[in-house]
Amino acid sequence: MTSEVRAAVFRPDDERITAAVELLESLGATPVPDPMLAIEPTGATPGAADWTVLTSKTGVELAAASDWSPAGRLACIGPATADAAREVGWTVDLVPEEYSSAGLVDALAGTVEPDATVEVARSDHGSAVLLDGLRDAGIETTETVLYRLVRPAGAGESAERAAAGELEAALFTSSLTVDHFLDAASERGVREAAVEGLGDAVVGCIGEPTAETARDHGIAVSVVPEEATFETLATTVVERAAPTHRGE
Prior knowledge:
Layout: E1 6-9, H1 15-26, E2 30-33, E3 38-41, E4 51-54, H2 57-65, E5 73-76, H3 79-87, H4 101-109, E6 117-123, H5 128-136, E7 140-150, H6 157-163, E8 169-172, H7 175-187, H8 191-198, E9 202-205, H9 208-216, H10 230-241, H11 243-246
Parallel strand pairs: 1-2, 1-8, 4-5, 4-6, 6-7, 8-9
Antiparallel strand pairs: 3-7
């Protein structure tokens, strides 16, 4: 068995994959970067509402680039999104304790004023939990799709590496990265072997929704960190996959 920790990472092919590679290297792992998400802006901007909800750093950047700024109050799904919003000069009024769609629903349901409106601005693959939850809470909610998430051409090296037993770790950061990994594996004719190969690796998922998607497709999930950040995910997975932990 190899003493190396080869870790597949699927972040978008921008500064996020660069930062992910640097982090994994700093942890002593050998990154296998295989971006599974590419961003296609729609050109839309958030609509007018008493509250605007942004669910990603990408959404902040696209809205800011179009010269939009919140006219009402602003909620962000987690600290990374909130930091990006503050960097462009916006005031962040709410960040939920749980960095998830369900967490946003709970936080907004207890904060939004009666008869106030909420606008959710995000990707085309946003969870239905957020819209359904807000509407079930009696909050008038609309949605604007700021960008689409697609699978980059050529993605799938990690699937072949998994199929060949050449990964000790894999880090999934959304349900869509799981879906795109499996689609790429299918295109290359190695889906079954890739899923089997991941069974010998430490598979980390950034939250329970991502883990549930992986499990639904037969992928054994080893790590779901309590803190839903990439740094925590990477640190926990590499530590678990390290040779000393594996008994080598």
